[in-house]
Amino acid sequence: MVTSLEKFKNNIIGSGNRISDYVPTVSSAGDFSKVTNIQVILNSWNNILLTPTRTYIANPEYGSNLYRYIFDPADGVTIEAIKDEIRYRLMLYDNRALLTNIEVSFMPDRHGFIVDIDMKYKNDTASMVIEFNKKNALKLEGN
After folding, report:
1. 118 phi/psi in degrees, rounded to 5
2. CA 18, CA 123: separation in Å to the nearest integer?
C-alpha cells in the first residue's frame, strides 16, 4: 500500500529520475500546468533572473541585479558584468543544470539588453531568452 508521503514524492515533487513543478498558465484546463525535467529548471532560472534582489521578503538576497545594467554603457565591460551576474546567481540558487553559453546583445536604442542562455540537463538541452529594457527598470526604480 502506498502511503500519502510516497504518493506526494512520486506525483508532486517527482521521482528519482524526474523533477517536476507547477507553473501558472492561462488555459481552459486550469490555472496551473505541470512541467518536468529541463522545463522545471528553465522556469526556476527565469524566476531567479527576473526577480530583483531585495524584493523577495523571505530571502532579500534572492534574485539578480541584472536590471541595474539596463542604462550602463553598451560595451564589453558591461557584457562581462552581465555574464558574471548570471553565472553567479544561477549557480548560487539553482545549479541543477550546466550553463553552457551566455550571449548578450544590446537593444538598438541602448536602453536595455537581451540575454540568450543555453543549458544542459542530463541528455536534454534548452535555451531561454530574457529581455531587460527601460520599461522594466522604471517599475523597479523604487527598490
Report:
1. -110, 140
2. 12
Over residues 49-73, the pLDDT tens digits come to 999 999 888 889 999 999 999 989 9
User: For residue range 71-80, what is the model confidence (pLDDT) as tens digits?
Assistant: 899 899 999 9
Distance CA 3, CA 9 (A): 10
* Domains of the chain, first to last: 1-35 (no CATH), 37-140 (3.10.450.40)
The number of angstroms, rounded, from the C-alpha of 114 to the middle of its chain's C-alpha atoms is: 14
CA distance 121 to 105: 25
Model confidence at 36, pLDDT cuts 50, 70, 90, reads confident
